[in-house]
Amino acid sequence: MIRAVYLAVAVATALTVAPPPTLAGPAATLSGGWSAVAKVNGADIPFRLDLAERSGVVRATFFDGTRPTNPSAPGTIASGRLLLLFPSYAATLDVSVDGGVLDGTYTRNHTAIPIHAVKGAPGVPAAPHAPSISGEWIVPKASAKGEQAWRLIVHQAGGEISAAILRVDGDTGTLNGRYVDGAFHLSHFAGERPALLEIRVQPDGRLKLDLTDSDGHADLVGLRPKAALAQGLAPADPTRFTGVKDPSAPFAFAFPDLAGHKVANTDARFRGKVVVVDVMGSWCPNCHDEAPFLQALYAKHHRQGLEVVALDFEQPDQLADPQRLRAFVQRYGITYTVLLAGDPKAVHEKLPQAVNLSAWPTTFFVGRDGRVKGVHVGFTSPGSGVRDAQTRAAAEREVETMLARPST
User: Fold this and answer.
1) Least C-beta-crowded within 10 Å: which of 155, 203, 245, 362?
2) How far is the CA of 310 from the CAs of 258, 373, 382, in angstroms?
3) From 3.40.50.880, 2.40.128.120, 3.90.740.10, 3.40.800.10, which CATH number describes the 5-119 domain?
4) Can you give the pTM of this predicted structure?
5) What percent of the chain shows pLDDT beyond 70?
6) Angle at Cα 325 formed by Cα 166 and Cα 297, nearest 5°?
């Protein structure tokens, strides 16, 4: 298990070396950066939380690396308690406020995560002589989805480091950290995808990886691509992972929109159009990564004949009252078609043409003839660096190629 030397130092620095400021009195404010810790599967996962208070109204923002994300709705403090809603994840932050300390829970998908935060940033410097591990590594891992390996993508500047683990369905978001006491200590929590990763360089050049996330704990290794290839190890290809039973048949869907009107692939609006069909859920972090890209793609190419359709699968409580999906649509300014398709457990029943549909999101590229021309599984975040840029560029090329073909 991770012993988290860096975490202990970070928390101790925040709590004892720099005593929390007193927030009592007329000039008291919560505004500023907070050093927070989320407890997940026995691990303390540090993360950044920013609060902005104005005229008694408080808003919170999480961060994916240095990128602000997952903003809250406005909230207020009552009787020393701060309650904030994060609508696009249907999540809540419920904490007591005691001086410069917050204690409570962050609840998402009916799971409550203990949260502790102190105002200010922990002053933990990186060690001056960190080994270089920049670049891409292959992580052998047999997954339930049939993968045999993941990618670890590392960006490093001296002892400061950021990384992402890229699976077939997408990545972990940006893990940030530094080199302390002989190991790199990285973490991510942006209101989703909590993860703590410790990396130690081994004498043979491999990486020893200790990962704790919402799935539990895993002891892993990292190999350079050449060494992994020699062992026959390769990550799954997201363009070959999922397919359709009959490529000559039109890709069929028929589901209600948020106003309750049934929308089908046979409707006039889709006839002779290129259609990007996105199988997604508002609960899915990688779907949040993809949504602004799809909106930009739609805005750019709609006049040339592009339609985008999101087939949204939600848990039963959200199907009955899809407030989270409505907030998701509002957050990303979505103007393409969004349909409420059903429960994630029923995805194979609802989309029987799909083969090996097991990752969220999965995007089907449908030509002007109504038939699937390509499928891409998962979506990346900026944490995947070049791989993220490649994912976006490949999707746009696919769309542009299909738009250039006349309808038959």
Assistant:
1) 203
2) 11, 17, 22
3) 2.40.128.120
4) 0.91
5) 92
6) 60
